[in-house]
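Lab notebook, bench 4. Still working through the backlog of constructs that have no structural model yet. Next entry is a single chain of 356 residues. Request: give me the C-alpha cells for it.
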Amino acid sequence: MVSTIKNDRLLKALMRQPVDCTPVWLMRQAGRYLPEYRATRAQAGDFVTLCRTPELACEVTLQPLRRYDLDAAILFSDILTIPDAMGLGLSLDEGIGPRFERPVRDVAAIEALGIPDPELELGYVMEAVRLIRRELAGAVPLIGFCGSPWTLATYMVEGGGSREFRLAKKLMYDEPRAMHSLLDKLSRAATAYLNAQIAAGVDVVMVFDTWGGVLSTPDYHEFSLPYMRRIVEGLQREREGRRIPAILFTKGGGLWLESIAASGCDAVGIDWVCDLGSARERVGQRVALQGNLDPEMLYASPQRLRQGVADVLAAYGEGPGHVFNLGHGVTPQVDPEQVRLLVDAVHELSASCHRR
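Model written out:
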C-alpha cells in the first residue's frame, strides 16, 4: 500500500514527472543562520550531542519547515557519522571543524575497521528518522543522506578537514590498494546506512561527494564515482509501493555529469559553477537535475536575489525534472528572511515553467 505524502512535488520532480511548480529545498536548510537552531544547539551543549540526541535532531530538522514553504525536510545529521561509528573518535568544535582522534593512515588501521551496524552503532540516526517521519505526518518527503566513500576517506586519513588533501592523496597514489580497501569498506557501510534510513522512513536518499571535485578526471573515475555507483546499485529502491529516488552530488563535478548520470541515480546535484542549461542538454532525459543558485546570492539585495532565482529557472527552462537548490549549503550569516524570499520566489516564478 502506498502511503500518502501531501506535498509530493519533490518526488515527482526527481522522477521527471509533471508538477505545478518547481520544488525547492536547501542544503543546510537547518543550521546556524536560524536563531532557533542556535538555541537548540546551546541546549545540546555541542554539535555531536545534537546529532546523537534523536529528539533534538528531530526538532532541528523541523525548524525550517515551520518558517518556510519548503518541499522537503532533510534529516539533521552529519556525513561523518559512519567513520565516527567505526571508532575514530569524532569531535566537532566551533571554528575548528571536525577532528578524529584516531586517523586511518596505513594498511593495518584500514584492516582493523569494522562495518557499523546501522541499528546499533548508528541507531540514534534511525530513531531520529522515525521521530521525524511521525512528526511530519506525511506533509512533505524526508531526505536521508550519507557522505561519499571518497569524501569520508579524506577526513579519516587527514584526521579532519583539509585544503590540500596531502595525506589522503599520498595514500591514494602510493598505496592505491589500501585506499581501494578503505573505499570498499566505506561503500558497504554507506549502503547499509542508507538502506537502514529507508527502512526507518526516509523517502529520498542523497550521497554528498563534497570533495570529489579535488580529484583529477582519471582519479575521480577510479576512486570516487565507482564507489558511489556501488552504493546506488545496493540501495533498496522501493518502500510501501513507492520508488525511493537517489541523488548524487559531486561538488566541482561538472566535468563528469554524463558519467554521474549513467551511474543509476535518479538525479544529479550540481554546484553553481556549472551552467544548468548546458547540464540539461548534456544529460538529456536520463536524470533530473538539482541546483544551482550560488549560496552567496543570499547576501544580495532582495531584488537581486529574486533575479538570481529567475535566472536559474530560465537556465533550466520549461518542463519537469528540476529541483531548485543552492549549489552548496546555506552559510551561517544569512538573514533568515532572505531564505523566505528565495523559497517564495521559486514557487511563484516557476509556475509558468510547468504550464501545459
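Notes after review: DSSP finds 16 helices and eleven strands in the chain. The two ends are 30 Å apart (CA to CA). Flag for follow-up if needed.
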